[in-house]
């Protein structure tokens, strides 16, 4: 019969499929596999973990090295500044007391002012020198005065005003060649300093005055005008 070939074909296909599945199962069952596959997997996982830890350690070591290098560069920069400062000091001392140094009388060689947290309060450091009478003690007191303007006229503020004290004592000094003395002054509100006068009064001798422009004794970023009083309503 014409249609009798279809059941046979279906049976043949089923047999071939069964043989294919059987062969695939047999291959899975009898294919060669390492006897220690689990141990190998554990060893590989351990090796990966070790490599990851080594990478983390190297990264941390690199960070530490970079930070150490940055710190070293900062330290070297600080040492360079210290060396430059010491060289400047040596040059100053050589000019002051060296055999070729020019002999000078008592003077305020240098004056520096630094603003404090209170905008009216300023700290000063004065470098006093004398080489005219070498080996002799020079003693006395230092007072400062300020020439200021309020925008209309110039006026002079004496030591008592700057110290906010009547009959304020000066800053005492006593040295052979040089000395740094320091103190604080208070600027009245609403004034603009123009010039600073250092007034040295020796115990035995005449008054000595040295003047400095305000811009030469204060940091460049320091305010030039003291805080003004609030407007009255």
Please provide a written account of the structure.
41% of the residues lie in helices and 28% in strands. It is α+β, with helices and mostly antiparallel strands and 233 residues long. The protein has 2 domains: 39-101; 107-217, Sandwich (Immunoglobulin-like). A hairpin with a 5-residue loop joins strand 7 and strand 8. The chain is elongated and about 140 Å long. Mean pLDDT is 80; it is low at 227-233. It holds the Pfam family DUF6776.
What is the fold's blueprint, element by element?
Blueprint (H helix, E strand, L loop, with lengths): L4 H26 L6 H61 L9 E9 L5 E9 L8 E12 L4 E4 L1 H5 L7 E5 L2 E9 L5 E11 L5 E6 H4 L16
Antiparallel strand pairs: 1-2, 2-6, 3-4, 3-5, 3-7, 7-8
InterPro entries: DUF6776 (IPR046703)
Pfam families: DUF6776
């Amino acid at each position: 019969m014409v249609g009798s070939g279809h059941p046979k074909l279906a049976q043949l296909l089923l047999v071939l499929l069964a043989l294919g599945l059987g062969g695939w199962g047999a291959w899975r069952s009898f294919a060669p596999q390492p006897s220690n596959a689990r141990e190998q997997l554990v060893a590989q996982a351990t090796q990966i973990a070790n490599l990851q830890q080594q990478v983390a350690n190297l990264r941390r070591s690199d960070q530490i090295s970079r930070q150490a290098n940055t710190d070293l560069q900062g330290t070297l920069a600080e040492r360079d500044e210290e060396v430059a400062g010491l060289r400047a000091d040596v040059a100053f001392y050589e000019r002051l007391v060296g055999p070729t140094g020019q002999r000078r009388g008592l003077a305020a060689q240098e004056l520096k002012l630094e603003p404090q947290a209170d905008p009216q309060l300023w700290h000063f450091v004065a470098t006093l020198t004398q080489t005219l009478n070498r080996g002799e003690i020079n003693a006395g007191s230092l007072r400062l005065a300020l020439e200021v303007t309020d925008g209309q006229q110039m006026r002079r503020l004496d030591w008592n005003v700057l110290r906010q004290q009547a009959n304020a004592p000066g800053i005492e000094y006593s040295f052979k060649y040089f000395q740094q003395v320091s103190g604080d002054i208070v600027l009245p509100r609403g004034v603009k300093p123009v010039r600073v006068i250092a007034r040295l009064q020796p115990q035995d001798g005449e008054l000595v005055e040295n003047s400095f422009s305000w811009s030469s004794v204060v940091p460049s970023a320091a305010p030039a005008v003291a805080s003004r009083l609030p407007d009255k309503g």
